[in-house]
Amino acid sequence: MSKRFYITTPIFYVNGAPHIGHAYTAIAADVLARWKRLDGYEVFFLTGTDEHGQKVEKAAREAGVDPQAFTDTVSADFRDMAARMNVSNDDFIRTTEPRHYASCTELWRRLVANGHIYEGFYEGWYAVRDEAFYGEDELIIAPDGGRVAPSGAPVEWVREPSYFFRLSAWQDKLLAFYAANPDFIAPHARRNEVLSFVRGGLTDLSVSRTSFRWGVPVPGDPAHVMYVWLDALTNYITAAGFPDESAERWAFWPADVHIVGKEIVRFHAVYWPAFLMAAGLAPPRRVFAHGWWTAEGEKMSKSLGNVIEAREVAETFGLDALRYFLLREVPFGNDGDFSRRSLITRLNDELANDLGNLAQRTLAQVARNLGGCCPARTPATEEDAALLAAGAALPATLRERLDRQALHEALEDVWKVIRAANVYIDRQAPWALRRTDPPRMAAVLRVLVDVLRDVATVLQPFMPASMARLLDQLGVPTEARDLASLATPLTDGTALPPPQGIFPRYADPVA
Ligand code: MSP
Hints:
Elements: E1 4-8, E2 12-13, H1 20-38, E3 42-50, H2 54-63, H3 67-84, E4 91-94, H4 98-113, E5 117-127, E6 132-134, E7 140-141, E8 147-148, E9 156-165, H5 171-180, E10 185-186, H6 188-199, E11 205-206, E12 208-209, E13 217-218, E14 221-226, H7 228-233, H8 235-238, E15 257-261, H9 265-278, E16 287-290, E17 293-295, H10 310-317, H11 319-329, E18 336-338, H12 340-369, H13 382-392, H14 394-403, H15 407-428, H16 430-436, H17 438-459, H18 464-473
Parallel strand pairs: 1-3, 1-15, 2-3, 3-4, 10-16, 15-16, 17-18
Antiparallel strand pairs: 5-6, 5-9, 7-8, 9-11, 12-14, 13-14
Helix pairs in contact: 2-3, 10-11, 11-12, 12-15, 12-17, 13-15, 13-17, 14-15, 15-17, 16-17, 17-18
The site of 5'-O-[(L-methionyl)-sulphamoyl]adenosine (MSP) has 19 residues, from β2, α1, α7 and β15.
């Protein structure tokens, strides 16, 4: 089994500022990347910015700035957002970098050499907001009676010379590929959408534009720039070293999973494998599509002024509370609503209370009654054994969940153990044992320390900073925080630092 893992986020359009939807994609991918590292994999985790195309060019024009200067600024803002979300990406790609031009150019050359590209003339509908072409039959009637893209984006009629990719020739090959790789598209509903789209027949795809300049020039015909989606998708191989197939990083290709939003599945699950196979390259192993967030029940939009900025939320509630909320509130793959109320409830009930209090109660008793030294392991009673077994089962359970990107299930599994530990501490009542049976009190506290260590270890990918603090307080050395280290028990008698709360309760000033 290869112990390498390559995971990506979509690269973000730089036509506007980052918001909670972008942070969501990046945080979810970050949890999966961190999990694999914790499980001993060599991980390559990529994010970045998608900087070409008409939409970005238009935004730059409206800002009165030249496109390169404009994208420099907005790309830096996305980079800052990722860093502030504690996203542990190994590389940050910008499609305006020379390495990416080299990669797109070579991919194009291979497509031409293999006979998949021909010159023609495009006449049809285009939605700049989606950077997508639409067939007449795909358009829908807008509330004002005009015709718009299925996403609601305005469309314009385009007539221009264009190169085409022979997508029509890929229908059977793609269907055979999906059949041979039933896990290629997840969740299941998305897979069905893609299958019916492809079964419905594919038309050739316009892959170059001549009506604007902001893109990668077509090799040998600089009047054309490449279609922004061909350019954008190629980022995933650029960062892996393409076209240098002897590069060390190339060993990471094909990517294990592309995390994407549901609205861009078609590009990743239809066009992208077709481009790659046509160029003689391996397609990615999996595309997972997550849902969309609304804000307090409304679609987020600049005009409504309700766009949620992840960095602001993290300032107010704490970054790890935000990370936890985003992944716990909504099954990964479904749509969800971002509400301050629900975030506060989860922060107070699940983080401050269920987990924070459990840790505080346990560690405060160790500090007060045992001189702050980790009690020794003793033979387990039936109840001890049941709780210890539940904690010890977490790595295997989460491995199964996270291999399916079921992030919410993973958290629910951890919380089952946390809830069981709370029941255990209340039933064992170590505070009472302090007088009646001090050795048993020490034994109970040790069981709790061990379970807290399991919990904190597997939760690190979700809440890296807070779990690092908890592991510090549990006396777990930094080099013993991966899954493999859980096989080695904590050393009896280790001096633990004085406990400090990890999740302050949030008292809502407006409530
Ligand atoms: N540039 C393309 C992706 C190219 S990948 C080769 C793009 N960029 S985007 O900036 O518009 O979106 C990036 C990601 O943010 C997408 O996965 C999208 O689903 C996600 N989100 C944007 N708004 C969102 C919400 N309101 N909720 C959840 N995610 C959303 O598409």
